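User: Sequence for PDZ domain-containing protein below. Tokens please.
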Amino acid sequence: MKRISLLVFFVSLLGCKQTETISSKIKDDVTFLADDALEGRQTGTDGEKAAAEYIAQRFEDLGLTAKGTEGFYQAFSFKPKTDPHQEVNYIVKDGDSSITGTNVIGFLDNKAENTIIIGAHYDHLGYGAEGSLYRGETNEIHNGADDNASGVAVLLDLARKLKSVNTGNNYLFMAFSGEEMGLLGSNYFTKNPTIDLQKANYMLNMDMVGRLKQDSTLAVYGVGTSPILKQVVKANNSKFKIIENESGVGPSDHTSFYNSDIPVLHFFTGQHEDYHKPGDDTEKLNFEGMETISSYIFDIISDLDDNGKLAFRKTKNESEETPRFKVGLGVIPDYLFDGEGMRIDGISEDKPAQKAGLQKGDIVIQLGDSLVTDMMSYMRALSSFNSGDKTKVTVKRGEDKVEAEIEF
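Assistant: Structure tokens for PDZ domain-containing protein:
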């Protein structure tokens, strides 16, 4: 897959110069991937191809071996879904409106029996593809610095750290495309692996790890997918307020590997008001926090280095229990909040919450007749309403309780 000229073009636009003397290139990697020149890295576009070329070059510079189907690349073609519930069709004929995405795969061969898979998706929404939450009048580039140039930058930093240590496993580093369209790249890899998946030890996934907050809250999902993981996550933590979730199923690429009976851990610093909007830019990231997360994941890998192949354990699929609802408040929940109620992390314009005067930081404690104690009880309460219904919402604002009228 010859893409050198395309990469050179974009590098010249950015004035980006590789420097071997910098110990951590996290900021450099995010800056390149989230620049306007890559036009949001939507799957199948020139910007996605330039990002793939950049990542492949970084893999090569780090001394990784190519492990795609064509060098570092694993291309997959698919026909976009018209029904969100249908299976994606990867088998397409030329000229039938198919899109081609590319996974980028590098391998660190320690001649070990088993392989750890470390992954992060690099695609995003281009000028505002399906999934964009931007409501402006014109298309704008969705650079996806946090989502998910941040995860790719941490992946590359881990590759640098693991080059000559922790040799009890091999390492497969994967930058996925097609995640925003439905975990397509990771799903394709698990059905068309370039290693023996029976020898896959466990999978680590980083998606949106760029905005560590002042309270250092870090979500770690999948701790129930192997009996040892909860202990290891806790034992190696000295800097984070960890929010654990046992389930191996979630809206990112780790799900594809969990569904292949591979233990997983997924790392996430939380949603924010710029999620899936043009404002998700490089200057808003916490690079020191990203380096701390990289070191924490490295410590987990080090702790597990001599544990052999981890046992896989099925977890409860919480998404199957999630209530369905026809209306919304128009808020971004704080998924990392572990207090009582549902904390609002952002307010969408011209939606019921804004019209009712709710504010960022408010904690919803009652919706209608239902008490709200956590995210699940909030969703259950919301599921009982239809468009046009009116009800009262009670929030905790600082030390005060505030009641407001909501119309859905």
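The radius of gyration is 21 Å.
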